Amino acid sequence: MREPLNISINWKENMQFTATNDKTDYEVAIDVPFESEGGKKEGTTPKHLFLEAIAGCTGQIIIMFLKKMRAGLPTNFKIDITGKLTEDHPMYFKNIAITYYIDGDIDKNKMIKIIEKSETEYCGLTYTVGKLATIDTNIIFNGEKVS
Questions:
Q1: Which residues pair with 7 in a beta bridge?
Q2: Buried/exposed code over 62-100 (b: 16+ C-beta within 10 A; e: otherwise)
Q3: Do 78 and 107 form a contact (C-beta atoms < 8 A)?
Q4: What's the pLDDT at 23?
Q5: Which of 78, 51, 49 is nearest to 63 (CA)?
Q6: Nearest CA among 139, 78, 135 for reference residue 114
Q7: Are 17 and 9 in contact (CB under 8 A)?
Q8: Left, alpha or beta for 72 (phi > 0: left; psi -120 to 50: alpha)?
Q9: CATH code: domain of residue 81
Q10: 67, 73 contact by CB (below 8 A)
Q11: Is residue 48 part of a domain?
């Protein structure tokens, strides 16, 4: 079993927190966007951070596989995620739509396979979320929707 991952959040004031972890020196600001709730818009919300983590996880796996396969790197690579929450508390994600925008001289079928493997086998976040919510995947490759 791998060693556990550890994080800490420290309360600053109102609804602002700073998150740190045991692997990097980087701090992440967490806040809410509503002044009525004490927010100052000085950080990302926890649910947005969750979606950002999913995009970062699958994106890094994709780049790792492209490098390992010597398949070339994209000239442009962007991931958009939309998460749909339930209406009632606890509001959780019931559907997550992931759209990959990839441009470059990369074999289309390899790219599709790498994205599928990233989501279902290698990115632990998409794997975990897929057990609890539906994940819809869209791939826009060199301006053409391929999946």
A1: 21
A2: beebbeeeebeebeebebebebeeeeeeeeebeebebbb
A3: no
A4: 94
A5: 78
A6: 139
A7: yes
A8: left
A9: 3.30.300.20
A10: yes
A11: no
Tokens representing residue 118 in the block: 């990233």
As given in the structure block, the two tokens for residue 82 are: 């939309």
31 and 94 share one domain: no
40-99, pLDDT tens digit by residue? Answer: 999 999 999 999 999 999 999 999 999 999 999 999 999 999 999 999 999 999 999 999
Identity of the residue numbered 41: K
> Interior CA angle at 115 toward 63 and 78, to 5°?
60
Domain match, 22 and 69 both: no
Q: List the beta bridge partners of residue 136.
A: 97
Query: Do 70 and 104 share a domain, yes or no?
Result: yes
> Which two structure tokens, joined as six digits, stand for 111?
């790219």
* Residue reference for tokens 């074999």: 107
The residues facing 120 across adjacent strands are none
Q: List the domain range (segments joined by +) for residue 75.
A: 57-145
Q: What does pLDDT average to over the chain?
A: 95
Q: How far is CA 73 from CA 62, 65, 70, 114, 119, in A?
A: 10, 10, 8, 13, 19
Q: What is the pLDDT of residue 54?
A: 98
Decide if 129 is inside a domain: yes
